[in-house]
Specification:
The structure holds 2 protein chains of 2 kinds. By secondary structure, chain A is an alpha/beta fold. Helices cover 42% and strands 10% of the residues of chain A. In chain A, the strands form 3 sheets. In chain A, strands 4-3-7-8-9 form a 5-stranded parallel beta sheet, covered by helices on one side. In chain A, strands 1-2 form a two-stranded antiparallel ribbon. The two termini of chain A are 41 Å apart. Chain B is built from 13 helices and 9 strands. Chain B starts with 12 loop residues before the first helix and ends with a helix. The chains are: A alpha/beta, B alpha/beta.
C-alpha cells in the first residue's frame, strides 16, 4: 500500500524494516490513523522512527512522498473561475467575503485561492488517494482544503497554518548537523565499553550463594572486575584557524571528561610536532615533549585528535614548516610516530566533510590518519567511536 | 479505548496517536525526551485514562531482565531444607514473581511501566525481546509457561544514556516528547495551577524561555522545574513588576533556585548580569 513510501524511507537512510512496515499496516487496519493525514503522519512516524536523530529525515521524506513535490510540472490544468467562486461561497460566510474584499482586490485573492487549489490538485496526483472520500469535488475530497480559505484569517480552520512535517522541528536532532552538548554525549557513550578484561578477579557473591544452594556444597564463583576500560588521549588544536571551532571542541571536551576513566588531554597548534602543552595560557613556557607523552602512556590508549587540519601543506610535510617555531622534524614524521604507537586513533574535523576535498592539508592529514578522519557531528563521532572500538 | 490526555496531563496530538496505536496493537511504546518533560508521568496518566492498574518497574544499573520475570530464592530453600520445613518440597514456594509476571497474570489489562530502561546493562533490552513480543515466558524451575491473559500496555522510558538494540526498537512504537512550545506550555500550566494570574504566567514564561535560550547552560530548566518555580512564585506572592522589570541589574529572576540546578549555571547567570550592568552604565 505504501510501498514507495517505505522504499523512499529506506533509501533516505531511515533504518526501517519489514516488521515495522507490517506494524504500520496492522495499525492502519485497526483504525489507529482515523483517516486523517495528520494522524497518519504521527502513526507512521512513531512506527518507523526509533531515534530522534532520524525524525528530520523522516519529515523530509514524508513531505516529499505525500506532497507530491516531484510531480510539479509546467502544464498545470486551468481551473474554471466558477469553480473557484463556488468554493469560496462554500467556505466563506458573507461577512468573511466582505472582510476579504476590504483587505485587497478580489482578483488577487482569487488568484491566491487558485494557486492553492492547484497545489491541492497536485497532491491528488501525488498518490494521496487513500485518504480521499473520492468523487465529490476534484478539490474538496480530503476535507482538508484549508489553505484556500484561510486568506485574511489569522488562524486556519484546522488550527494549523503549516503542516507539521513541514515545520521540521527535529532538525537539531539530525545526526549530520553540528553538535550540542547533549547529542555529543550520546555519541561518546559509544566509547564506553564495559569490557571485562583479564582474569576473573572479583568474588561473585550472589552467584556463589545461588550455586552453593543449588549444588549443596560450597561453589565459589568469580567474575572479572567491571570497570570502564576506555583510556583516551585527547589532542586539541588551539589557536589560528581553529578559533571559530573552539566552542564545539570544548563541548566535545567537556562531554568527554565525564565519560572515561583515564582521559589525558593535550593542546597543539595546527599540526602535531615535538611538543604539546596542557594549559593553553602557558603554551610557550610550560610544555611537554611529545616523546615523553608516547613513553608515558601505553599503546592501548586510544587517541582522538580534534582539529580542522587546515593549514599550509608545508606545515605538515617539511621540517621547519611550523608557523610558530622551528621544528627539526616535519609534522608528518611526528604524526606517523604517534599513530605507530597508538594503533587506535581518529581525527575529528569540524570542517564539513564535503569541503575536505578542496583542502590539500586535510587530504594529507587524512591519508596520514589512514582515512580515519571524521566530521565533528554526532554521526561522525559515532563512526569515529566505532572505528576506535574495533 | 482512546487516550486523549487527562485533567492533569496535556497530551499533544502526536503523543495521542502514538499511545493509541500502542494500546490498540499492544506493542510496547518507547518514550524519549528531555528530562522533566513528563515521560514517567505519562504511564500513570494512561493508566488513569484507561482505568487500568499501573505496574511500575524502575530500572537500575544492577537490574537484570530475569528479575522482571521471576527470581528463584535458592538460599531460603537451602535453609528450610536444613530445618526440615515442609515447604521445601514444593519449589514454587521459593519462586518470587517479578513485575512482568505480575502484569501477565493480572485479571484486567494493566499498564506496565518500564522506567529508564537505558540505566540497565546493554544486554537488558535484548533479554526481554521474546517476552515483550509474545508476552510469555518459561519458568525452568517448575516447567510452567506463563502467558499473558491480557496483553498489558507497555510503556518504556529512556533518557538516551545508552543506545537500544535495533531488534528491540523494531518491536516498539516510538515517541519523542519534544520540549513544549509556549502555547502548549500555557495549557500545561493551566492544568496544574488553574487559578494562577494570566499576567504572572506570561511574564514567567517569557523569563523561562529566555533562560532556556542562554547559551552554555549545563542543565536547561525543564517543564517540571517551571512548575515548581511557579508554585514558589505563587507561594511568595511576589508583586508582578518584580518579574516585569527589565532592569539589567536584576537579571537574575527571583527564586531562581527552582530553575537553575547547579552552581556553574548560577555563576554564568551572575556573570551575564554583571556584564549587562556594565553595558548599561
Amino acid at each position: 500500500m505504501f510501498n514507495s513510501f517505505f522504499y523512499e524511507l529506506k533509501d533516505g537512510g531511515v533504518p526501517v524494516s519489514i516488521k515495522e512496515y507490517l506494524t504500520l499496516l496492522e495499525a492502519m487496519k485497526a483504525g489507529c490513523a482515523n483517516y486523517s493525514i495528520d494522524d497518519f503522519y504521527f502513526l507512521a512516524r512513531s512506527t518507523f522512527v526509533k531515534d530522534e536523530k532520524n525524525l528530520d529525515k523522516f519529515d523530509r521524506i514524508f513531505g516529499k512522498v505525500f506532497e507530491g513535490v516531484e510531480f510539479i510540472g509546467d502544464d498545470v490544468a486551468e481551473i474554471p473561475k466558477e469553480w473557484l467562486e463556488k468554493l469560496a461561497e462554500l467556505y466563506l460566510s458573507k461577512e468573511e467575503m466582505e472582510e476579504i474584499k476590504s483587505l485587497g482586490s478580489w482578483d488577487e485573492i482569487m488568484e491566491t485561492l487558485k494557486k492553492r487549489l492547484e497545489e491541492q490538485q497536485e497532491r491528488h496526483q501525488g498518490g494521496n488517494k487513500w485518504i480521499g472520500t473520492a468523487g465529490k469535488s476534484p478539490f474538496g475530497a480530503y476535507g482538508y482544503n484549508p489553505e484556500g480559505v484561510r486568506i485574511g484569517q489569522d488562524k486556519g480552520r484546522h488550527g494549523r497554518a503549516i503542516k507539521v512535517w513541514d515545520k521540521r522541528e527535529y532538525k537539531n536532532l539530525d545526526d549530520s548537523v553540528e553538535l550540542g552538548t547533549r547529542n555529543i554525549k550520546v555519541a561518546l557513550r559509544k566509547l564506553r565499553q564495559f569490557a571485562r578484561e583479564g582474569e576473573a578477579s572479583e568474588l561473585d557473591l550472589d552467584n556463589t550463594i545461588r550455586s552453593t544452594a543449588h549444588k549443596g556444597y560450597l561453589d565459589i564463583k568469580m567474575v572479572p572486575e567491571r570497570h570502564n576500560a576506555v583510556k583516551v588521549l585527547l589532542f586539541l588544536d588551539v589557536g589560528g584557524s581553529m578559533d571559530p571551532h573552539i566552542k564545539v571542541c570544548e563541548e566535545l571536551f567537556s562531554a568527554a571528561k565525564s565519560e572515561f576513566k583515564h582521559l589525558e588531554f593535550f593542546y597543539f597548534h595546527n599540526c602535531l610536532y615535538e611538543k604539546v602543552w596542557k594549559e593553553n595560557s602557558r603554551r610557550f613556557n610550560d610544555f611537554l615533549s611529545t616523546l615523553d607523552v608516547m613513553h608515558t602512556y601505553p599503546h592501548d590508549y586510544k587517541v582522538i585528535f580534534v582539529g580542522d587540519a587546515s593549514m599550509s601543506p608545508y606545515e605538515i610535510t617539511y621540517p621547519g614548516g611550523s608557523v610558530e617555531h622551528w621544528n627539526e622534524e616535519s609534522g608528518e614524521v611526528w604524526m606517523r610516530r604517534l599513530t605507530d604507537v597508538y594503533s587506535r586513533a581518529v581525527w575529528l574535523n569540524p570542517i564539513p566533510e564535503q569541503h575536505w576535498t578542496y583542502s590539500q592539508s586535510i587530504q594529507i592529514m587524512k591519508s596520514l590518519m589512514e582515512d580515519r578522519m571524521f566530521p565533528l557531528t554526532v554521526g561522525g563521532i559515532d563512526r569515529a567511536m566505532r572505528e576506535l572500538r574495533r | 479505548m482512546k487516550f486523549a490526555g487527562t485533567d492533569n496531563y496535556v497530551a499533544t496530538d502526536d503523543l495521542k496517536v502514538a499511545v493509541n496505536a500502542a494500546a490498540t496493537l499492544r506493542r510496547p511504546l518507547l518514550i524519549k525526551g528531555e528530562p522533566g518533560t513528563g515521560k514517567t508521568v505519562l504511564a500513570k496518566e494512561v493508566a488513569d485514562a484507561f482505568g487500568c492498574e499501573l505496574i511500575e518497574w524502575h530500572i537500575k544499573s544492577t537490574t537484570k531482565a530475569q528479575q522482571g520475570l521471576y527470581e528463584y530464592d535458592a538460599v531460603s530453600r537451602l535453609r528450610d531444607s536444613q530445618l526440615g520445613d515442609e515447604k521445601v518440597k514444593d519449589i514454587r514456594n521459593y519462586i518470587k514473581k517479578g513485575k512482568l509476571w505480575e502484569a501477565f497474570t493480572s485479571e484486567k489489562t494493566p499498564v506496565l511501566l518500564i522506567d529508564e530502561i537505558d540505566k540497565a546493562d546493554i544486554e537488558f533490552p535484548n533479554d526481554l525481546l521474546l517476552e515483550l513480543d509474545r508476552m510469555e515466558f518459561h519458568v525452568y524451575e517448575t516447567g510452567e509457561t506463563v502467558k499473558a491473559k491480557n496483553r498489558p500496555i507497555v510503556i518504556i522510558t529512556s533518557n538516551n544514556e545508552k543506545e537500544l538494540p535495533d531488534a528491540f526498537l523494531r518491536r516498539c512504537f516510538f515517541h519523542f516528547i519534544k520540549f513544549p512550545d509556549p502555547e502548549t506550555m500555557k495549557d500545561i500550566i493551566a492544568v496544574h495551577y488553574p487559578d494562577i494570574q494570566q499576567a504572572l504566567v506570561r511574564e514567567a514564561l517569557n523569563i523561562f524561555f529566555d533562560m532556556r535560550e542562554v547559551p552554555g547552560l549545563k542543565k536547561k530548566p525543564s517543564t517540571s522545574e517551571l512548575l515548581d518555580w511557579l508554585k514558589l512564585l505563587m507561594a511568595e506572592d511576589l508583586p508582578l513588576d518584580v518579574l516585569k522589570s527589565k532592569d539589567p541589574s536584576k537579571l537574575i529572576p527571583p527564586l531562581h533556585g527552582a530553575l537553575l540546578k547547579n552552581e556553574q549555571d548560577v555563576h554564568l547567570f551572575e556573570r551575564l548580569a554583571f556584564m549587562n550592568r556594565r553595558q548599561g552604565a
